[in-house]
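Entry:
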Amino acid sequence: MSEDPNARKAMLDQLKTIRNSIFVLGGMADETAQMASEIPDRFESDVWREIARRHRVKAIELQGQYAALSAEYTARFESN
């Protein structure tokens, strides 16, 4: 079976994009949570904590996508 170099590059690009998104979302969640802890108004700080939580959840979802795509990449291109 011949290897499609375009498919390999596309998968590597997608893995890189997912990895970068996980990193960015984690940073955004940390910054948002820190900001929430400094807001005296409870309602407003709860809103910002919820935003931080959603960033963390999305990062976890992307970690699952990364793991699945990484396994697919390995099976497709690195197993002989």
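The chain has a mean pLDDT of 94.
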